[in-house]
Amino acid sequence: MFISKMTELIYLVPSMVAAVSLPSIIFYLLIKKPRKPYVTVLSIFCLDIFLWNISVLLINVVGVNNSYALLLAKIGAAGLVLIAPLIFHFTVVYTGYLKTRIWLPLVYGPTIFLLLSMFSDYYVEGVAIKGFGIEPV
Question: What is the pTM for the complete model shown?
Answer without folding.
Answer: 0.83
